[in-house]
Every structure is written in structure tokens, then in C-alpha cells.
Amino acid sequence: MHRTAPEGHRILVSAPYGSDAPSLQSVLAGQRYDVTICPTLHDLAVAIGDDVGVVLLTEEALSGDLAQLQLALQQQPSWSDIPFVLLAGRQAGRAVSTEAIRRRLPDNALNVVMLERPLSSESLFSAVAATMRARQKQFEIRDQLTRLDTESTRLVTLLDALPVGVAFVNPDGTTALANPEFRRFLPTGEVPSQRAEGAGEWEGYEPDGTPVTRNRFVTARALRGEIVRGVEFLHRPAGKPEVWTRVSGIPLTVGGHVTGSISVIVDIDEQKRGQMALAAAAEELERQVAERTEALTEALAQLKAEGEERERAEAALRQAQKMEAVGQLTGGIAHDFNNMLTGVIGAIDIMKRRIASGRLDGLDRFMDAASISAQRAAGLTARLLAFSRRQSLDSRPTDVNGLVVSLEDLLRRTMSEQISVSIVPGSQVPAALVDANQLESAILNLAINARDAMPDGGALTVETTLVTLDEDQCTKWPGMKAGRYVVVAVSDSGVGMDAPTLEKVFDPFFTTKPIGQGTGLGLSMVYGFAKQSNGQVRIHSAPGSGTTVKIFLPMAEAGVGPADSGVEADHRGDGETVLLVEDDPSVRLLVREVLAELGYTALEAADAQSALQLLGGGHTIDLMITDVGLPGMNGRQLAELARQSLPDLPILFVTGYAESATERSGFLGPNMHMITKPFQIERLSAKISEMLG
Ligand SMILES: Nc1ncnc2c1ncn2[C@@H]1O[C@H](COP(=O)(O)OP(=O)(O)OP(=O)(O)O)[C@@H](O)[C@H]1O
Ligand SMILES: [Mg+2]
User: Fold this and answer.
1) Whole-angstrom Cα distance, residue 416 to residue 404?
2) Class of domain 388-554
3) Ligand 1 atom 29: the closest Cα is on which residue?
4) Does residue 2 surpass a pLDDT of 50?
5) Ligand 1, from 504, 505, 540: best to mutate by most atoms within 8 Å of Cβ?
6) What is the per-residue pLDDT for 117?
7) Is the peptide bond before 647 cis (omega within 30 degrees of 0)?
8) Mutate to test the pocket of ligand 1, among 380, 415, 449, 515 (most ligand atoms within 8 A of CB)
9) Which whole number is the average pLDDT over 607-631?
10) Chain mean pLDDT for the chain
């Protein structure tokens, strides 16, 4: 449709008489109007259209059948009311009857302007222009209607397609406009709060979970002027599944008055059920976790109880094993001591009887027998002490290479003829911090084991090396410190040992040798000695492939010192006074005897207290010999007190076993010496002579 020309400029002219039509046409065309001449009413009816601006006709044109014109006007759109400018002629003798002429127009031509002829062109122009302006207004209305129509079509299309229910609600609760989604929930077009029976289709909930009452329904609230957002409703359509919805309401107001509301319904069923399922799942999960936790706690408690039970059982087992070991140990000691005591007691008995009956010949044999048995007993206690790490060790820097070389002769004599002996001192082996006598005896023990393992001959090798142990290696050997160690390895090519034997070799009295041939203390002694020397023993052995026993000894920081003078020369006393402190009468008797024999004067005390009295009693005392393990104050403490009044007094300690005396270097002060029980008389007298000489 044209907004500008020619609509609004188009004029239909119908003037059947004379030159009316052409002259009107030429006048109007001069005013830039677009003029169409319609000679008949039929032509006019055909030309009528909604683009026509004005119809200009003369009275004479209305003298035919108007039905066709009437029909054409009827078919005009509602906004269109085509203006008619009717030119009536003044006839002589009659006044123009406007009404009469007008009535000749079809009754649906309502917009009529009458002009009387003759009239000036100005009057015609101004009448045509005025009607044309009025017609222009109609066109504008037409355009606005068209725009409104487009918009409303758009809105309806949008509403129809919206997945959300929307309705414009009238103040009485009926819907003025609702989209299909909304009608799904309200097919009656009336909000439930307005219908008693309808409310039952809905069940709404306030945020606190209580059901929404009728006047709290969203639309009811919106119609009271409240903006309501997101109230959840369970919608229960008859015969269909329930649906969860969320409803909002917005009041529509004009000048402060509520003229209706917009209601919006969203189907949240899927989301809501998802949420509820999630909540249920979370609850279920929580329940399960609680259940599991409880089960776990129970299991833990049970495990703990079982652990405690097992610990008790293990403790009982350990106790049983300990008792077995103690039994084995005491049994072994008792057995061996009985044998030895039989030798001693038997020999002494026989001697007593022979002396009583005056048969003094051949007593030597029995004396030797008693002495040998007693020596064996001494050997046994020495090994026991070594194993229990209670022996008195004289650890000092020792040249281990020199020591093994000096042992070569002894080892050769000890081995059988079919056994070859090699001594392999390592190069650059430094001194080890060790008790030389004990090391000799350990090597001898190992060599004898090797010999016993090679009844048909073989090879014995004694080797020395220097090894460095790092932290890593030490973690495998409990109690070992990282550092440098002198290793003495004694290897044989003998029968070797199986795993079960290897496990027990260090147990005291464990032996596979026939009764009388082994006490099972050899390796126990070596083990205890190495441990007490801050070292370690390792055994490698397998049946048929021989055995290597390695003794690890800590490297000495200092070099080898001057050796013990080892003076064994008999030194005769010159009446010097010796204070003898010893609680055991037999030992006291023996030592006193030795002192008398050597020409010394002996003062005796059975404990430290009496010794102190003698020390302060005005005697000149040249030497104190004291037992370490005295009742009450011990020998070391006595020495301490004695030295307070006599700082230069030489002191000789005698010890059997003393925990505090296990490491001599720390135990002995200046001019103090030590001799271990049981001692040979020669050794004691040599020591006394050395100290007084
Ligand atoms: N070099 C070796 N070859 C094979 N078996 C050995 C060797 N050294 C020790 N054994 C085994 O270990 C056991 C224990 O040895 P250990 O030296 O402690 O006691 P013993 O030699 O039996 O008796 P003892 O040494 O007291 O006279 C031996 O009986 C033997 O079975
Ligand atoms: Mg042995």
C-alpha cells in the first residue's frame, strides 16, 4: 500500500452532464490531484477502492441504481469511510433540499459534504482539500492498525511457542489471554482460587513447607497488587500423573488500580524430581556411610582385640621360648659342671683317703686330674661370661695382622695333617680396638669348629681385611654403626650348615657334636665377644660348600701401644704390707697363702668398711688387692676413698664378673691393675711382683 501518492490524491469524478466532468478534471488536475472520471454509477462502483481519496459527484450522477455502489462501499475495510463531496445544483424556484439529495446516496455513505453550485474554484479546492485531509487521517489509522496487527500476531506466535505457561488474568480470576502451555494447567481458563472445586487440583507449598491456603494462591495475591515469584505447586490433573510447577504472578496496574495480572507457570517436574532423587540419594549415601563407618569401627575394634590377643599369645610364646632357652642353658651348665666337679671332688676324695691311710705315692695323678677338671670349669665360665658380654675386656689398639700371624703355629698344631692352613693378612689393615687375648681365643674356637667340619681334611684360611660400612648396610645389621672395621674371616672347606642349624649356632649349648665333644659355647662366646667389642659376627655357610665366619672389629683411632710387659718372673717380697679385701674366705685364704709365700705381710678385710678402718689405722700399706664385687660398697668405690688419703697407693682389682668392670680402659685409674678370676697362682704372683717391683 502506498503511504504517499497516489492514494490520498486520487479523486473519482462522476458528473454525467455536459462538460462537467472534463472541466472538473482539468481544474483538479491543476491542483496535482489524480482524477479518474467515472461516467456511470457502475463505473464508479467498480473504481471504488480503499486507495481512493475523495469521491466527487454531481447530483445528476445519483439518478441510477445505487445498489452496486452500496455493495462496493460495504466491501470497504472497517477503518475506511470514503468522503463524498456532492455538488447540488440550485434550481430556480426550489431551495436545495440537502436532506433529500443526501438520502439519494447509499445509506452506508456517511461521510458526505454538500456543496451548492455554482461555486467558485477556491470553494471547491478548499472543500476537496479538507475532505482529503480527513481521508489522510483514516489512512494513518489504517497503518497503525496494520502495525498493531503485526505486533499482536508476533505476540501470539511467541506465546504459542513459549515452553512456559503465560496468562493475562482478569480481576475476576478468569483468563483474558492464555497460551497453550498455560491452558495445559488451567483448561477451564479460571484460576483455581476462584473456584471451590478447582483448588483441589493444586497443592502449593510455602517456603516453610506448609500448604498454601486459598487466598495465598499466586494469582489471588497478584490480583491484590503483590509481585509473587516462584511458589512451588504440585498440580494434580484428574486421571493424569502429578506435575511439579513453579508459579509467579505480576499485578497489572493502571493509575494505582489493579486491572488484572500476568500469571506464569513453569513445569519443573523433571528438575524437582531430580532434586528429590538427589536428596534421597544423598540421604541414602549418608545412611550407607554411617552404616559402613559403624561396620568399620566394629571391624577395627575386633582387629584391635585380635591384635591384643595375638600379642598376648606372642608374649606367652616368647616367655615359653625364653624359659626353654634358660632351661637349655641351666641344664647345659649343670651337666658340664657336674662332669667337671666329679673330676675335682672325686680326685680330692681319693687323695684324702690315700693321705689318711699314709699312701702318699702317686698322688700327683689325682692332683693333675682335679686341676684339669677345674681348668675346664674355668674355661666354661669364661665362655659363659663372654657370651653374656660380662667378661672384663681389655680393649686396646691391637695389630690384628701380627696376631693372626703369631697364631699360625698353634693353628697348624691344632689341625689334623690333612688340613692345609693359610694365613692371609690383608695389606693396609690398621689396628683394631679389641682385647687381644679374647680375639685369639675366638679365632681358636672358630678354627676348632672348622677342623671338626673337615674330618676328611680340607683347607683352613684365616684372612684379615679392612671394610667400610655405610649407613645403608648398617640398617640391615641392628646395633652396627657406620664406619671402618677390621674383619677377621675364618673359612673352611668343610661340610657346611643348613638353614635350621645356622639359625641356632649362636644359641648357648647348641651343638650337633656327640656328648663330651662340644659344649655348644664356642660360637656363643665369639658372638658375645664381638658384640661387646662393638663389632659383629656374620656366618656364610651352605651344606657341602664350607663355612666362613667373619668377625667385624672397630678400627682403632690410635696406633698400637706398648705391649704388656708380661713379666712372669717371680719377685720375692721384702716384708711389704699388702691389704687384701675379699669377701670369699676360700679366695682370701688362697691369696693370703700366695702373699705369705712371696714374702709379703698380709692385712685382711672381708668388706670395704673394715678395709677403710685398716687403711686409717696407722699401718703403712704398700699395695691393696681388692675384689670388685664386694657386699655393700664395691671395690672401685673403696679404691676411690683409699686414694683420697693415699694418692699413690697401687691397687690390684680381682674380678670374676662385674658389669661395671667390663671395659677396663674406662674402669682403671693410674697405677691400677686388674686380674680376672679364676687365676693361676703364677699369674697373680707375677702381677703383684710387677706392681711392687
Ligand atoms: N665351621 C663349621 N662348619 C660346620 N658347622 C659348624 C661350624 N662351626 C659351627 N658349626 C655348627 O655349629 C654348632 C655350634 O658350634 P659351637 O662352636 O657353638 O659349639 P660346638 O663347636 O658344638 O661346641 P664347643 O665349641 O663349645 O666345643 C656346631 O655343633 C656345629 O654344628
Ligand atoms: Mg665349637
Assistant:
1) 19
2) alpha beta
3) 511
4) no
5) 505
6) 84
7) no
8) 449
9) 91
10) 87
- Is CATH 3.40.50.2300 what the domain over 577-692 is classified as, yes or no? yes
Residue nearest to atom 25 of ligand 1 (CA): 522
Q: Residue 567's pLDDT band (boundaries 50, 70, 90)?
A: very low
CATH class, range 10-153: alpha beta
The yes-or-no answer to whether 10-153 and 577-692 have a common fold is yes
CA distance 446 to 539: 11
Ligand 1 close to Cβ of residue 545 (< 6 A): no
User: What's the pLDDT tens digit per position in 248-266?
Assistant: 999 999 998 999 999 999 9
Q: Is the CB of 98 under 6 A from ligand 1?
A: no
CATH of domain 165-267: 3.30.450.20
**How far, in Å, CA of 493 to CA of 418, rounded?**
12
3-state secondary structure of 12: strand
Range of weakest confidence among 38-52, 113-127, 222-236, 645-659: 645-659
Residue reference for cell 538427589? 278
What is the predicted pLDDT for the residue at 585? 87
Q: Which atom of ligand 1 has the smallest separation from the CA of 508?
A: 18
- The domains of the chain are located at 10-153, 165-267, 388-554, 577-692
Q: Centre a 10 Å sphere on the Cβ of residue 129 and count the other Cβ atoms it contains.
A: 13
Atom number in ligand 1 closest to CA 496: 4
Kindly list the strands in the beta sheet with 175-178, ordered across the sheet, starting from the edge strand earlier in the chain. 175-178, 165-169, 257-267, 243-254, 228-235, 202-205
CA-nearest residue for atom 7, ligand 1, is 449
Q: What does the alpha-carbon distance between residue 510 and residue 454 come to, in Å, rounded to a whole number?
A: 19
Ligand 1 in reach of 513 Cβ (< 6 A)? yes
Cell matching residue 667: 674402669
Q: State the pTM of this model.
A: 0.49
Q: Of the residues 523, 527, 529, which should be mutated to test ligand 1's pocket, given the most ligand atoms within 8 Å of the CB?
A: 523
- 383 pLDDT tier (thresholds 50, 70, 90): confident
